[in-house]
Amino acid sequence: MQYKYIPRKAIVFKIIYLCCTVAVGLFMVYQLVANLVQCFRVGVKFDDILVLITVLFSLLFEGSIAGFIIRSFKEPTLLMKNLVFKWDGTPYIVGIVSVSLSAVAALALTVVMFLSAYFFNWLGLPFNVEQMIFGILLMIFVNLAFTAAYFFTFRHESGSIAII
Length: 164
Prior knowledge:
Oligomer: single chain
Strand content: under 5%
Structural class: mainly alpha
Number of helices: 5
């Protein structure tokens, strides 16, 4: 078995990203179970089925990201490289700016949905729908934030294609 050197910075980045991804995935599992329990208690409506399907697909998507991160511990992958770096290793400014701005926008929307779901009900939607939207926005924010953080963390190693 040949030993491959993986920079410590890459391992720490992957562990933190994996922990955040698993935390969001566990929140999605909680939502799925809570919605299933609610459906068994009061009966299933069409809206509940849509929420369940959406949460299930979100959970599967988050699980695939977690699996991809776990796989990257064994072999380097191109998880986020093509969004922030060009093929020659130079920074892709449009990608960095768009991902960073999208992460900030997703954070703002996530905070608004959290406040609406748990405190103020600004949108007037049922709690489980607002909670589902909050979970999806949280998932989007975490992935965009780590994509933006990827550039700032690995900007000096941009010539290497096997960072993460």
